[in-house]
Structure formats: C-alpha cells, structure tokens
Automatic annotation (TrEMBL):
Residues 12-85 form the Orc1-like AAA ATPase domain. This is Orc1-like AAA ATPase domain-containing protein. InterPro entries: AAA_16, P-loop_NTPase, TPR-like_helical_dom_sf.
C-alpha cells in the first residue's frame, strides 16, 4: 500500500504551531478531528499535516468525502483511497478492516460534516478492528467519539499571517502591495475579514481589476451592514459576505457558469465544463473565458488540467442555480453528458481508445455516480443503460461494490424487457463472478440467455454465453464452458469477430481449450486472438490472450516464451489499472521466472502478487489449472534460494511496495526476454 495524497500545494502560509500540535497528536492519539467553519483552512492544514506524517515514514491515505451526498458510497470511496478493490461478497466494512489489518496507517477523511452518522460508525469499526490505524478527519463539527482529540482551526492571525497571505496572493495576481500605505490597507482588510483564508483569497482574486482601497471600503461597508442585521456568527458572516461580494463582482457569464458548475461532484476538464455548462449566453468561447475568470478570482481551483470548486463556493453556486430555475435542466444535462461519454467508450471498447476510456471512467467516477443517482430518480431505464455499460469497465477499475449496487437498484426499478435489461443482467453477472458469487452469476447468465434468445439479441446471446462459460471455467468444467460458447456461435451464425461480445466468447473458448488440455489448438486460437487485438490497438483481450499463451508455454516447458507473454499481459493490465489481472499475471510471471532459474525475481513477483491478491480481498484465484502451476514453481523458487533467502527477498519486496517492484520486475523480464 502506497501513501495516497493529493498534490500538496505550495504557498502555505503560517500554521506552524498548529502543524506541530497535529504532529504530536497524530503520534499519540488514534482519532483526531479538525473543526471550524467553511473556508477557515481545515483541509489544507490536514493535507500538510498528512504530508508531514508521510515524510516521517508513515503510510497515508486521503479520502475526499465532499463529493458524497449520502452514506451509500462512503465505504467504496475510502476503499478506493486505500487502493483496495474489493472483489468479495463479504460485508464491506469487514473486508476493508481486514485489508488495513495491523498496518501503521494514517487515514484522512476530508469533509465529514454531511455524513456524521456514517463516518462515526465507520471510524468506530475501523479503530476497533485495526490496532495501528490513526484517523484524521476534517468537519464543521466533531464526530463525537469518546477518545476523539479535537482541534479547533482558527482563522489566521490578522496582523501577521493573514496579511502575508493577502500579499502573496496579490503578488501572484500581478498586483503586489508595495509601500506602507498598501500594507496598512491590507491589514485593515484582513482585520475586516477576520483572517478567514478563503475570504482573503477571494478578495485577492479581484485585485487585478480593483485597487485594495476600493476592495477594503466595499467589504467593510457590507460587513458592517450584515453585522447590524445579525447575519450569523462572525466567521460565517465574513465568508458569506466575501463570497456574495465576489459573486457580484463577477461578470454575468462568470456568475452563470459558477451556478452551473455546482452540478459537478468531482474535478473536470474544460471540455466537460463547456459541454455540460454551455448553452444560452455561454457559447463555447465564452464558457472558456468565464472559467478562466473564475480561476483568476479563486472561485475555481485548478488541479493540473482539471477544475473544481471548494464546498462552500459550490454550495453558493447551487443556491443560485436553484434561484435561476435551472437545477433540473443542469442535472439532466450533466447526466446525459456522462451517459453519452460512457456509450461512446463502450462502443470503442475493442479498439485503440480502450485505455483512454478506462482512464477517463476512473477519473470521472464521482460524476458517473452522480449521473446514476439522478437517472435512478428521474429515468430508471436510462440508469439501467448507463449501469449496464459501466459495469464491465468498473469491474476492472476496482469499483465492483458500486457496480453491483447500482445495477441491482436499476434492475429493480426498471423491469422493462429488452436488450438494455439483458446487458445490465450480464454486467451484474460479471461483477458477481469477480466477487466469487459464481452460483448467483450462473443464474443470471441463464436468465440473460433466455431473454436474449427471446429477443433475438445477438449481442446478448454471446455475452450470456461468455458469462456462462466463465462460471463453468471457474468451477473446473472447461468442457461445458466450450460447449456453451460453441452453441452460442452456432445460434448467431458464427458471430462477427470484431464485436466485443464475439471477442469475449473467443477468449473464453481459449481458456476452455487450455483447461481440457488441447494445448495446440488453444495456442493457435490465442495467437490469432492476440494478433487481432494487436491490430485493433486493444489491450484487455490481448492481455488475457498473453496470459493464456504464458500458461500454455509453462505447460510445454517454454519458460522464455512464458516470461515474454506474462510481461506483456502485465503491461496491459497496468495500463488499464486492473488489480485482479495484475495479481493473475504476477503469479504466471513468477512461475515463468522460477522455471528460468531466476529465483529472486520470481520470489519478488510472488510476493507482489500476494499484495495484489490482498488488495482485492481474497486469496489467489483463477481457473483451476493454474493452481498446480503456482505450487510447482513456488517450490522451485524456494529450492533455488533456500528458505531464509526466499523469506528475505519476499519481505524486501513487500517493504518496497507493489508499484516499485512491478516496475523492477518488468524491467528485469524485458532484459531477460
């Protein structure tokens, strides 16, 4: 498990005593909560404290909870932050606890305020089950646990750090505050804004077009007015006034975009912003200019090529979206955009755009969940279509829990028969197989096949045959699996080699031939499938064809060929981000290296494979013929090194971490090939 933190931004001002206090607290207490009003800097303080813990040698994981609207995705989001792709049917919290185990880990849960009950239960469970876990949370109020170490995050000191922050942001905006008069005015402004960092940054964002005296006069007058009206606690009043003032100073196009941007849950690129938020007065060029303006004014934060809003700013935008009467339309546009993107990714799956599609779907996860939530409320059949197309992608991206839950919800809400439902049934079956629920998956595959035959749905017939074949292969029945595949091809007249469903069936048939011992035929079909995938620029099928060619080469004592194919499989699975596939590939590569006599690389591969198996929540799996191969060549590796050296190399590999070791192993394999 590697430390997983967002990029730590430069320009962090002050907070030296708070950071020192947090370092002591995280070393001593197992539950630490930072509280304070919106915009006071809780998240940034937590990020720097976590970064310091990482530099002190602790493993750190960061989970953004601001993207969640309820507890439904709480455990999956935290599992994702912990690099845990749960492939089990067990209780999610139990499997997550088992994955954390006794690791020395700092888990940061950012923005818990909307999920206090869920966070309270989850943290209680994890702390009881994981003896070396430390949890750091940020929230607008305490979780209320018995041993919670509570730290109130105060605004910056107005006479020192607040002025320094304003001056640094002003200089970055190209309008440095020079001379005593400018500094005096800056001090008065920071005093009026009570040192609230977000309010100061919003004020600084307007210095490019207004001088600081003007900003100070206007904001002070507004704050005096709101104070006279009893406009809430001082810090809340300051931030709300600063946000409202900043909103008023935005151009009309910027204000409209601010409102429309509030529909996004995650960070998005400019193209997505234009597609979802454009329309009416926001032509594409105008939307881009408005986005750049909001970034300059600190309303929008930039993470590389992607943009996102802070919670407090987004809440204000959502309020204005409601006032404009555009909320329903904006949510519809958002959901339709992400549905269209997934449909395009699905159509391009067997082609050169496959890797990009997997990476985009992983990056857009929060907004894809938002689209499914909205469609389940408004258009269940569209949700069924989106879930059915997402399920197979998510099965490789570590999101089996979400895929299963959303598909089950959509299937229960939309019972209309037809190809859309058939595809969703199939996708649910695939997720169940990967979670080890082959019996349920087999039942779904039968229903899927019957429905597909009734509708004469060629794609559904082939997909159901693939799913049935998969359940039989994992159950050690390769002959029946091959029969199911051959029957399906006969039913559809041979199928079309270039369709994704036909390719899946061809791959399953290769597995079945290997399982029956027909190695020559299996090798010929696997090589044909690999060539076809290579010509199409596609990696998922190619990687599993390589996997089969590696296994066949091991059966035929061709260790060198097995290493080449195992390495190629791992390269494909690494590009896709498929932990389950990486675990399988590392087992085969380890066996091939041991067969070559490369004992230490083999042990490193075995140990790293065990890490990946642990990261999907269960021990080694795969089709039954792989089991004896693992046992045989693990013994070979141990005999090559001896027990002591074997254990030492395995331990060193675990300490270095799976990503580093995987890169080293692939480099060694490339040299050996």
């Amino acid at each position: 498990m590697l430390s997983n933190l967002p990029e730590v931004p430069t320009g962090f001002v002050g907070r030296g005593s708070e950071l020192a206090h947090l370092a002591d607290a995280l070393a001593r207490d197992r539950m630490v909560t930072l509280t304070g009003p919106g915009g006071v800097g809780k998240s940034r303080l937590a990020l720097h404290a976590a970064d310091r813990a990482r530099h002190d040698g602790r493993t750190v994981a960061w989970a953004d909870l601001w993207q969640l609207r309820d507890d439904r995705l709480l455990v999956p989001v935290i599992a994702d932050a912990l690099d845990f792709a749960d492939h089990t049917a067990a209780t999610p919290l139990d499997t997550l606890s088992a994955w954390v185990g006794d690791r020395d880990l700092v888990l940061v849960l950012d923005s818990c305020e909307g999920l206090l009950n869920g966070c309270r239960a989850l943290v209680t469970h994890l702390l009881e089950a994981c003896p070396r876990l430390t949890v750091l949370t940020t929230s607008r109020e305490r979780l209320g646990l018995a041993d919670e170490h509570h730290v109130t995050v105060e605004p910056l000191p107005v006479a020192t750090d607040a002025v320094r922050l304003l001056c640094e942001r002003a200089a970055a905006a190209g309008t440095p505050l020079n001379g005593p008069e400018g500094l005096v005015t800056a001090a008065r402004l920071c005093h009026a804004l009570e040192g609230v960092p977000l309010a100061i940054e919003l004020a600084a964002g307007h210095l490019a077009h207004r001088d600081i005296d003007q900003i100070e006069r206007v904001l002070r007058a507004r704050l005096d007015l709101h104070g006279a009206r009893g406009f809430g606690p001082p810090h809340h009043r300051v931030l709300r006034t600063a946000i409202g003032w900043s909103h008023e100073l935005c151009e009309p196009a910027e204000r409209l975009l601010w409102a429309r941007l509030s529909v996004f849950r995650g960070a998005v690129d400019a193209g997505t912003v234009v597609a979802v938020c454009g329309g009416g007065p926001l032509a594409p060029e105008e939307a881009v200019r408005a986005l750049e303006g909001l970034e300059r004014k600190s309303v929008v934060k930039r993470d590389g090529e992607r943009h996102r809003m802070l919670d407090t700013v987004r809440e204000y935008g959502r309020m204005w979206l409601d006032e404009l009467g555009e909320s329903a339309e904006a949510l519809d546009r958002h959901a339709q955009y992400f549905r269209d993107r997934v449909r395009a990714a699905d159509a391009a799956w067997f082609g050169p755009g496959q890797i990009h599609a997997y990476r985009w779907i992983h990056a857009a996860h929060a907004d894809l969940c938002a689209a499914l939530d909205h469609l389940l409320d408004t258009r269940p059949k569209a949700a069924l279509d989106l879930g059915g197309r997402l399920g197979f992608f998510w099965s490789c991206c570590g999101h089996l829990r979400e895929a299963t839950d959303y598909l089950e919800d959509a299937l229960s809400q939309c019972k209309e028969p037809g190809p859309t439902r058939i595809r969703a049934l199939w996708a649910l079956g695939v997720t169940l197989v990967l979670r080890g629920e082959a019996g349920r998956a087999h039942g779904l595959a039968d229903v899927c096949r019957q429905e597909a035959e009734r509708w004469e749905d060629t794609d559904g017939i082939l997909r159901s045959a693939y799913l049935l074949g998969l359940t039989h292969l994992l159950g050690g029945r390769p002959l029946i699996a091959a029969h199911q595949i051959d029957q399906a091809f006969a039913r559809v007249g041979g199928g079309t080699p270039d369709t994704a469903s036909a390719v899946l069936c061809r791959l399953a048939r290769v597995f079945a031939l290997t399982g029956q011992g027909f190695l020559d035929q299996a090798r010929d079909e696997a090589e044909s499938l690999r060539r076809h995938s290579l010509a199409r620029g596609e990696w998922w099928t190619r990687s599993y064809a390589d996997y089969q060619l590696a296994v066949i080469a091991l059966f035929e004592d061709r260790a060198r060929d097995a290493v080449v194919h195992a390495r190629s499989m791992l390269e494909g699975k690494r590009r896709i981000g498929d932990s389950f596939g990486l675990a399988l590939g590392l087992d085969v590569l380890a066996a091939a290296l041991a067969a070559q006599g490369a004992g230490e690389p083999a042990v490193a591969a075995y140990a790293t494979g065990e890490t990946y198996w642990s990261a999907v929540g269960h021990p080694q799996r795969g089709t039954p013929e792989l089991g004896p191969v693992r046992v045989r060549y693990e013994r070979t590796a141990r005999s090559l090194l001896g027990d002591d050296r074997y254990d030492q190399v395995a331990l060193e590999s675990v300490v270095r971490g799976p990503d580093q070791v995987l890169g080293e192993i692939l480099g060694q394999s490339a040299q050996g090939s």
